[in-house]
Amino acid sequence: MSSPFILLLLLLLTSLTSLTSAWKRDEFRTCNQTPFCKRARTRSPHSLPPLSASQISLSDGKITAVLHRSPPEPEPDSQPEPETRLLLELSVYQNGVLRLKIDEDYSDSVSKRRFQVPDVLLPDLDDRRLFLSRLASPDPGSTVAFLSDGHEAVIRHDPFQIVVRRSGGGDPVISLNSHGLFDFEQLRTKKEGEDWEERFRSHTDARPHGPQSIALDVSFHGAEFVYGIPEHASASLALGRTRGRGVEESEPYRLFNLDVFEYLHDSPFGIYGSIPFMLSHSAEASSGFFWLNAAEMQIDVLGDGWDGAAGVGEAKRIDTLWMSEAGIVDAFFMVGPGPKDVLRQYASLTGTQAMPQEFAVAYHQCRWNYRDEEDVAGVDAGFDEHDIPYDVLWLDIEHTEGKKYFTWDKMLFPNPKEMQRKLADKGRHMVTIVDPHMKRDDSNSLHREATEKGYYVKDAGGRDYDGWCWPGSSSYPDMLNPEIREWWAEKFSFENYVGSTPSLYIWNDMNEPSVFNGPEVTMPRDVIHYGGVEHRELHNAYGYYFHMATANGLLKRGDGKDRPFVLSRAFFAGSQRYGAVWTGDNSADWDHLKSSVPMVLTLGLTGMSFSGADVGGFFGNPETDLLVRWYQLGAYYPFFRAHAHHDTKRREPWLFGERNTALMREAIHVRYSLLPYYYTLFREASVSGIPIMRPLWLEFPDDKETFNNGEAFMVGESLFVQGIYEQGQKSVSVYLPGQESWYNLKSGLAYAGGTYHKLEVFEDSIPSFQKAGTIVPRKERFRRSSTQMAKDPYTLVIALNSSLAAQGELYIDDGKSYDFEHGAYIHRQFSFLNDKLSSSSIKPANLGRKQFSSDTTIERIVILGLPAGTKRAVIEPGNREADIEPGPLTLRGGASPVAHIVRKPNLRISDDWTLRIL
Ligand SMILES: *[C@@H]1O[C@H](CO)[C@@H](O)[C@H](O)[C@H]1NC(C)=O
């Protein structure tokens, strides 16, 4: 080879390595490179001519008004700006939700309609709307409407402002336009010589409809912290200030679904999903704000001095600035007053977590890629050989024929049904990947069909949009169109998806959508969807509709009887109704381990209860101790899956020596033993919208020490978990909240609440505790999969509090079907009070015709905190005496007798009974 050639090769190699070694900041726009963001962000408060509200009246139980702003004085040599005229609609819903819509007046001959995001709000939302019949005008400049729950909404006329406050002129809770930053670029015709095109790198966005952005300021009064607006990688749970004194990093939080290669562990840049919902909290109050808008959004959290004022602002107020490229204002204010009230209010709009099948709550084993059927069989056997349970084996893109989804590589996977049957025989399941990019190749029948039917998203010139993704040249079905979603759903039938069986479920990746050669690795904004909607208007919801269509496909496949499991990388508000999400392509380092907790907690706060991070980290090779710590933490994520990039070394849990195998086995056992508790929490999430993995402050809303703790978390209201995020860490400072004590899950020893503890760190577990006053149901026999544990007996772990009382719940159903919706489930409450433990049903009567029964028994009752010397109990019915003996906390626990144990009480889980301590 000649030397210039070698030089060229070297150059190529170095550029390739840099391509694969770091996040490429230049590929993504900053606020300054985004005209609508720059425009809104550089405006100072009250600098626009004031906006006023007039013609306020009631119509169909809603308030309507006209918003008006005279144009600002034109700058010398520039075109005069048009005046603003908008229609406002304000309505009130049950349980403390106010809705504000602001849109153009289309009677004014504007041709294009702005996009309103369909199918995100619950279809029965309107049934919960309250009919307003009366307005008050305490003074000539404002109009007041009454919300339920002791709150009222005030419209200030001039300048226009909305303030939600406590009734009778009480303290403000949340307000809009207090700083006069509301701006709405109305659609208009292009002026002579005006250039609407936007360029970024090599891409040009035609912007045929011109500027159409919206900006508004929202203030959370009485707030100390704000949370939410995923998805960002963050080392902190509360949202940091993006402007104001002392803020150096000056980018707003960006909501724009993007496939970001090797995302940083702490950054406001947008990644795979977007939920424009923010919550505020302080010991006194909580509130929420949700803006239903699927265009790119940028959000500033403003600190003291952001507005140029020298002093400190109103004590306990957080101002925020919301900027969106397009769409309308369709915003919801939630008044709490408690943080769980805010979550319920948000769930009343976008729905709760879909109840998963029980297997999906267990451990998932994934890798890009399990190569072939032999590899699958080997991994499956490895788990059995090493006595490690797992429930689901995953196949990434390489299992397909040339990246055509719904197909199998015939050489590598010649007998997919047989492969799935072998797993199913052990109660295990399989998940395969199905992405939205469709290979543009005539051998792809799906592509031929989609082309023929005109089902693809169109480019600005009206042709099928052609982008580059895994299969090469690809097109994307237009998931906004309900007809196309129906068509897509049919592809999951057993006849259409050849080689699939009832134990196969689905994973949607790359649905941001990811387009390798598109601007910012996604679709151009001027691409056209169903109904003439531009991609810029719905971008953040594309993945949502894809996830929805896939979940509906599995639902159809099972005749409406089999709960779907679909994991999605992209998401939007409401995605919780369709399945699980994960935090995408993280990296195998300690920082990403640590960021996973605030990320999963934030997802839970914004409705996405079923989420987790890739255990081990997707990119790179984790050190063994990192991998072990990740299993120990991941065992508590609501979604517990290990995954790895195909350039990484194999990392199944038995590849790191006997000791490490034992440590990872034990971590997975922790999850399997807690499956009854997790499943009960999923039930709660699916009913109420309260997440499974919770920030400490959700359970201890008055304890300020917890408000920005993103290192520890609660699982339900009973368990506390602290991650270990440093290599070789010997001790850790742990804050245990509340007034009651905590029982260490490993040692059974009690620790005081309301204080910091310096704890020794052990290799075999991360610090985890059960709160005094709770009862946790467990299963302690380990089998190959959760399915095989269905009939295993339960253990009840009772942690008594200072009044020698405790309480807990257990939910059981068939783990698979929708019969629970017709009453086929068991829901028990356990309560320990006055020396008596009782089990009673908390299932409402007359729920439906279907029954679920279980002969499963309780094999152990473990009581922590009972005075020493307790020896006997009597069980009713039957007046049977039972022995109480000192013993270890868990079946396989050490010898140290920290608890009182009733062995084999011979009780059925579904019966009413009592156990009285003598
Ligand atoms: C003890 O636990 C019971 C049951 O959870 C609860 O009702 C009671 O308030 C708790 N007592 C104290 C002092 O926290």
From TrEMBL:
Any GO BP annotation: carbohydrate metabolic process
Annotated pathway: Glycan metabolism; N-glycan metabolism
Keyword set includes Aminoacyl-tRNA synthetase: no
Any one GO cellular component localisation term in the record: endoplasmic reticulum
Domain Glycosyl hydrolase family 31 C-terminal: 689-776
GO function terms (MF aspect): alpha-glucosidase activity; carbohydrate binding
Residues annotated as domain Glycoside hydrolase family 31 N-terminal: 88-300
Organism domain of life: Eukaryota
PROSITE patterns: GLYCOSYL_HYDROL_F31_1, GLYCOSYL_HYDROL_F31_2
Domain Glycoside hydrolase family 31 TIM barrel, first and last residues per copy: 354-681
PANTHER family given in the database record: ALPHA-GLUCOSIDASE, BCDNA.GH04962
Family per similarity comment: Belongs to the glycosyl hydrolase 31 family.
Name of the protein this chain belongs to: Probable glucan 1,3-alpha-glucosidase
Naturally occurring in which organism (per UniProt): Iris pallida (Sweet iris)
Source species taxonomy: Eukaryota, Viridiplantae, Streptophyta, Embryophyta, Tracheophyta
